[in-house]
Design brief:
heterodimer, A: about 325 residues, alpha+beta, about 20% helix, B: about 550 residues, 5-stranded mixed β-sheet, 24 helices, 17 strands, about 15% strand, globular
């Protein structure tokens, strides 16, 4: 939940970042404060809305007086703290972390599963290509789930999916199993995702920075020609979402930050959009033809025109209004 | 148990097997189902069935009201749990664990392993494992839980044939004996007001006693910090001795277990704590059973009102010797170190301020109180203060534990305590602090060995585990051994360590090391890893390149 702005801790802490004096507001971390000042620090395992975990170590900064570097995503500044994110030592660590992670990407190159890989974004910014290390043995793809493709060869073990599944959605399906370089994201007891207790809320997909978890059938590789910000058409909660549209077809959905959902969605909002393009969907008002007598039988959608004809909104509303007026006039206003 | 109906009414996720559930309930009996008991309960399943099947994982998850993913991720973290899927063959009931850490490798663990594998029958599983804490008797093979010292194929086969698969309980000073010799009197004096917490803390500060698990944080100062924390405060004692080359905790524990318990109870009194947790590595089976027995005797006839003392069992994870990883493990989770701050003293076990101490640190409390701060502080050489228990192994005549003055040099230690080098071996170098402490050449055999004295040489004394190398050894090969150990034991949480150790091993397996790349990698691992494992992991490789350049020519 977002904090009530009136109750938020508005105390500010002044500290120095890269020689510039800046202020952190309330409980902000170094990374959050830096973002407000448009000072870029690479980060991968951090995502707004998820508990910061500090495991990827891409956001390492040097704090004067401390022997090792600190993760900017987890550290809150104290007054007068002298922090560097752009000196030789910190940039060395940041780059090495990105290089190590890039080493274990498919083909040691850009993620083949998404156009918006955060690892690719930062690797490009910090000029990292052609990693110098040996690649790990890559796990196989898990395409058992109808809505979500699991390609752990692009996984950077940042556990954003786990925190989304366990701590945000409280679905408790995703785990981080095994140890060391064998550590792996698993579903339940390492079952194929499609056979696990996953309810397909898709929050893990939205959390994944590299495309290791993506909507099935590579739709995330489609560049949308436009995006439509709207409200989920299902229940009354009112989750905000964005439809990614190409050639007048919805390709995939992103949760959008709204008061009731903070970017999260359920299976219906995230994946239940195929009805939009269904041939049976009514897109114009219909008026029953005189000869289209009402029966108990379900109408065959292929023969809809036998019973109805298309009408304009004006005509349809006039007809409905006339019907209501007729009832009022003949049966009285309480009818 | 959560079940979700998928398409066409299919039940998603495996259903709980009634038989497995009954088996799990039978094993757990009346014990608490709280989260912190997860590892203890997994041990019960492993002990009974010699593996942990998916059926049992599901049942345990249901019984403990935990998500199955959390049970699974915890079980698969620990190497002593053999988690198998439905269609997999269960592991054979008997496992032979061959230690392949530094000293054992120097003494032929590789050959032993080959011989055992070549003559193996399928009833037995052979596994390589990291240091089992008996380096003075290298090489080691553990048959079941029975340690075969200076092992060879014949000895191992004899143990299997004779069904010697249980570690014997060490013959220690029992509770009755310890009391008879005046044990627990100091504790009683404390409780009866003969000492004040402040005076004891001052005494410890004056004695210069430092945490002997490796970090060397002054014990007195730690107790003082704890007293300033809000109550309730907890105590956690670390007997997860796993640094390759270290066996001092086992040495003291096997002989005189009540001495550290008394020290711990004095700490409990001094910092006004509530519960005490003791975490012992699973490799020390005999010690654990002995400790269980001694704690039971203590509870039966206590010298004073006792707090709750919980004995918790590790499950094969070096990283759980890291203080915050140990706390995670006691809480029943994967042993992944926490980020600091907050420090364990402020937010530790179950979120409470926690005094975590190495067992040996507590071993000396009674002596320091009875004999005075000077007794401890007056020892020491070359300007250093106190005593250190050195675990010495390798190419020396008499490997073992030596209580020697802090600041003694390697040359002095070899000559005065270790009976010199083995015949035909010339002193070549040494690991001053297990696998994490780096490697020094013989030319630096005159450096005082203590906390703070080795930093200038890019080394670190840690738990004072010294492995002596001779001209028959290769620093380059042993640095690779150390890096393989770190790769095996990395928890997998942070990138520099999880990925860095694996990449370093690959580079170090090449005949020609890419030294520039390794240095680049080492720098990031030291700077950016979460805990001491990743930060210390590159030390041996750095030292090998710096101090032994002739091996790379």
């Amino acid at each position: 939940m977002a904090a009530n702005p009136d109750k938020m801790n508005k105390n500010t802490t002044e500290f120095t970042l890269n020689g510039k004096s800046i202020e952190a507001i309330g409980d902000e971390t170094i990374l959050q404060a830096a973002k407000r000042y448009h000072i870029e620090i690479p980060h991968l395992c951090y995502k707004d809305g998820l508990r910061p975990d500090g495991n990827c170590r891409a956001c390492m900064v040097e704090i004067k007086g401390e022997s090792v570097l600190a993760p900017a995503c987890c550290r809150q500044p104290t007054a007068g703290m002298d922090v560097s994110s752009d000196n030789k030592r910190t940039v060395h660590s940041q780059k090495m972390v990105l290089e190590l992670l890039l080493t274990d990407m498919p083909q040691q190159a850009k993620s083949p599963y998404t156009l918006n890989s955060e690892l690719d974004h930062w690797a490009e910014k910090l000029d990292i290509y052609d990693p110098r290390f040996h690649q790990r043995n890559q796990p196989h793809a898990d395409l058992s789930h109808p809505a979500i493709a699991v390609n752990l060869d692009a996984c950077i073990q940042c556990t954003r999916c786990l925190r989304a599944c366990r701590e945000e959605q409280v679905n408790d399906v995703i785990g981080y199993a095994f140890r060391g370089s064998h550590s792996e994201i698993v579903f339940d007891t390492d079952e194929p995702m499609g056979e696990s207790t996953c309810v397909a809320c898709g929050d893990c997909v939205q959390a994944c920075p590299t495309g290791a978890l993506m909507p099935a059938n590579n739709v995330a590789l489609i560049e949308p020609d436009h995006k439509v910000d709207t409200v989920c058409p299902y229940c009354g909660v009112g989750c905000l979402l964005t439809y990614n549209v190409k050639n007048d077809r919805i390709q995939y959905v992103d949760g959008r930050d709204g008061p009731s959902n903070h970017g999260r969605l359920c299976v219906k909002g995230r994946y239940g959009f195929d009805y939009v393009h269904h041939p049976d969907r009514l897109t114009t008002p219909l008026i029953r033809r005189k000869e289209g007598i009402k029966t108990d039988e379900l109408i065959d959608p292929d023969n809809l025109h036998k019973y109805y004809r298309e009408a304009s909104w004006e005509e349809a509303l006039d007809l409905a209004a006339e019907g209501l007026r007729n009832i009022r006039d003949t049966k009285g206003p309480q009818a | 148990m959560k079940r979700t109906r998928g398409k066409k009414g299919r039940i998603l996720g495996s259903a709980v097997d009634r038989k497995a559930l009954a088996e799990v309930r039978d094993l757990l009996a009346n014990e608490p189902r709280t989260r912190d008991m997860l590892i203890e309960h997994l041990h019960k399943i492993q002990d009974r069935y010699h593996h942990i099947s998916s059926r049992h994982i599901l049942s345990l998850a249901m019984e403990m009201n935990l998500p199955r993913a959390e049970v699974y991720e915890t079980a698969t973290f620990y190497h002593h749990f053999d988690v198998i899927k439905e269609n997999e063959t269960p592991t054979p009931p008997l496992t032979i664990r061959v230690c392949n850490s530094l000293t054992c490798e120097m003494f032929g663990a590789g050959q032993l392993l080959d011989e055992l594998i070549s003559g193996n029958n399928t009833d037995v599983r052979i596994q390589t494992v990291p240091c089992v804490g008996r380096c003075n008797k290298a090489p080691l093979a553990i048959v079941g839980s029975y340690p075969v010292e200076t092992a060879n194929k014949a000895k191992v086969n004899r143990a299997i044939f004779n069904k010697e698969t249980e570690c014997a309980l060490p013959e220690c000073i029992t509770y009755a004996q310890y009391r008879k010799d005046g044990g627990y009197q100091t504790l009683i004096d404390c409780i009866n007001g003969k000492h004040q917490p402040e005076s004891i803390i001052k005494l410890l500060e004056d004695s210069n006693l430092r945490g002997l698990g490796g970090a060397g944080f002054p014990v007195g100062r730690k107790w003082r910090i704890l007293r300033e924390q809000p109550q309730p405060r907890l105590i956690a004692i670390n007997i997860d001795e796993g640094e390759p080359g270290t066996f001092k905790d086992r040495y003291y524990l096997e002989r005189d277990p009540h001495r550290f318990i008394e020290g711990t109870l004095i700490a409990h009194w001094a910092i006004e704590a509530t519960d005490i947790y003791i975490y012992i590595r699973d490799e020390y089976t005999g010690c654990r059973k002995m400790l269980e027995r001694e704690l039971a005797t203590l509870r039966k006839d206590p010298p004073c009102k006792l707090p709750n003392i919980y004995l918790r069992r590790g499950a094969g994870a070096y990283i759980c010797g890291e203080e915050s990883a140990m706390i995670e493990s006691i809480e029943g989770k994967r042993g992944m170190p926490r980020l600091r701050p907050p420090y364990v003293a402020e937010v530790g076990l179950f979120g409470r301020p926690t005094l975590e101490q190495n067992m040996e640190s507590m071993h000396w409390i009674r002596d320091i109180i009875e004999k005075g701060a000077d007794w401890f502080a007056a020892e020491g050489r070359n300007g250093r203060k106190g005593l250190r228990s050195f675990s010495v192994s390798g190419r020396i005549q008499k490997p073992g534990i030596y209580l020697a003055p802090a600041g003694i040099t390697m040359n002095e230690l070899i000559d005065e305590f270790c009976g010199g080098m083995l015949p035909g071996h010339e002193f070549y170098g040494y690991f001053p602090g297990g696998a994490s402490g780096g490697i020094l050449p013989a030319s630096l055999g005159n450096v005082p060995l203590d906390f703070d004295t080795l930093q200038a040489h890019d080394c670190f004394i840690g738990s004072a585990a010294i492995i002596v190398l001779s001209d028959k050894d290769s620093a380059k090969a042993l640095a690779l051994n150390a890096m393989r150990f770190f790769e095996h034991e990395s928890c997998g949480q942070c990138t520099p360590c999880r990925v860095g150790t694996a990449k370093a091993v690959k580079l170090m397996e090449q005949n020609d090391w890419d030294q520039l790349l390794l240095k680049d990698l080492a720098q990031a691992m030291e700077d950016a890893s979460i805990c001491g494992l990743g930060q210390a992991a590159p030390k041996p490789l750095r030292c090998a390149m710096y101090y032994f350049p002739e091996e790379f020519e």
